[in-house]
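note to self: dont lose this again. the chain is below, predicted strucutre after it. 154 aa total, dont forget to put it in the shared folder this time
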Amino acid sequence: MQWPTYLAAALGAIAGSLGTGIADRFRWHRDVSERERQERQAAYANFLDAVKRTGIAISQAAHEETLPLEDRARQARQAMGQHGLYETQAQAELCAPKTIIPLMNELVRALLSLRDAVIGGEPPGAPRYEDAWLKVHTDTVQVREAMRTTLSRS
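---
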């Protein structure tokens, strides 16, 4: 056999190995990125679910007009902790880009304002209550859109 045949075979083996290695590296990187995106999506969904459940619980406390103010205030205070809002916020912050975190904090502050309105005896329909509820809604939409942007595959 001639030495060019051996050289061609060796170069072919090297090129094949390099090509396979590069393809495996890209595949691994894509899989890791997709797994991180899925984890971020789950954390975002859990946080938004906790926001929704907390807001509903505070609103329900406000609508319990037959209860004394102290009981409605207690229910509103409990709503902030019983739906895992702070825990899911912390989890989402671990995987969220830094641009999302201030938006999440603002949304939690809006829920606290709604809670404070209920604790202060503001009934649904009162300007302070309605302003707080609108702020919660507006901030939720803003956070959701920002989160959606970070999840895009572009």
